[in-house]
Amino acid sequence: MMRKLKICIFCASSKVSMLMNQNLLLVPDASELTQALRRLQGHSLAVYKEDVELLQFSLNLEFLEAEFFLWSANGYGLDVTAPQLVMGGPPPIGGQKANLDFVTHNIINEFANQEIGHIRAIFYTVGGFPRPFMDISAQNFAKFFDEAFGYKLEPPFDPYRDSLSYMLSCYVLPYVGLNGYVGANPFINGYKSKRVLAGLLGPEAGQDAVCRTYLYERAAEIVFPYPYTVAEFTARISELRNRLGMCGIKDEGLFVPPRLGAENRTTSNILSTDYFSLSYPRTPAEILRIVYDTGNEHVPGGFFPAGANGKIARDFLKQPWNKEKTH
Question: Are 171 and 234 in contact, with CB atoms under 8 Å apart?
Fold first, then answer.
């Protein structure tokens, strides 16, 4: 075995030397070589134990997005479209068909079916759990938007009212899932797990980009019947998520001061990224603080009135919490 391994290493290093002499930028980095060696030695696994908990945690956001998109586009959810995936979990409350124009409906319907695929991919890779109890009602979104503005909007914000209102509500969700996958990436080890995570991150980032582009094109438009522009709505929502997440700036609206813009040169902010224009990461605890709308991963509420599912989320519910950190 050692003789074979030495031969493989020699062949690999010879190939690297040849590529370097040809001035080709195809040299694998140290981590890639390490992973290749681990596979040769039989130490690499498709899925590690730690991968299971992290990938299963993401099912909570995938279930939430799937139900919200399905109900909004079609007037029904997973119980009709993919009943085998809910595993007996309770249906969400408050879902309804949104008043969407043709283009927006097509976008959201595609998003909905993508989310079904995401749930399947996670189930096939690491298994799953029953759909958690979720609140996707207009009243729940209205509460979130009231908190974003610091007072009760009149009339209450209704995500199902029209296409613009709906896309503003979509601004709330896919981005949080994107943050979660970026945050989980360094802790995923299995080669199959990594492939699935990368495959999930791409569409989540794409969905967020579609939502932000849609809103960016309408940034100066007043959101009837409120005296605020689309850009102001995005800024308020991002500020709220930063407050709830309690880990500094990891969320930005459509316009930012130059110090937060790309290379400190732009105030336009069609994508929310950090100093190096990389996506912001969030931990499971930060994500729960946001989707619970309590600022505390130990106190359920918001989109998950009974708490999220999976070992990570349920373990937080068993731990003691500091009442002073909740709303």
Answer: yes
pLDDT value of position 102: 98
Is the omega angle on the peptide bond into residue 300 within 30 degrees of 0, that is, cis? no
Q: What is this structure's pTM?
A: 0.85
Whether omega before 225 lies within 30 degrees of 0, making that bond cis, reads: yes
Residue 182: phi, psi to the nearest 5? -65, -40
Q: Which residues pair with 229 in a beta bridge?
A: 222
Tell me what pLDDT residue 37 has: 53
**Identity of the residue numbered 72:** S
At 18 the pLDDT is: 37
* Per-10-residue mean pLDDT, the chain, length 327: 37 38 47 60 78 97 98 98 98 98 98 98 97 98 98 98 98 94 96 96 96 98 97 98 97 95 95 96 98 97 98 91 52
In sequence order, the 6+-apart residues with CB closer than 8 A to the CB of 16 are 27, 28
Q: Write down the residue that tokens 């689309």 correspond to.
A: 230
Q: Count other Cβ atoms within 10 Å, centred on residue 84.
A: 8
- Cα–Cα dist 300/313, whole Å: 10
Burial class (CB in 10 A: 0-12, 13-18, 19+), 123: middle
Q: 261 with 268: CB under 8 angstroms?
A: yes
C-alpha 254/C-alpha 323 separation (Å) is 33
Q: What are phi and psi of 229, to 5 degrees?
A: -80, 165
In terms of C-beta density within 10 A (0-12 exposed, 13-18 middle, 19 or more buried), how is residue 120 classed? middle
The residues, any chain, with a CB within 8 Å of residue 315's CB and separated by 6 or more, are none
- With a CB cutoff of 8 Å and minimum separation 6, the contacts of 14 are none
**Dihedral sign computed on CA atoms, order 139, 140, 145, 150:** positive
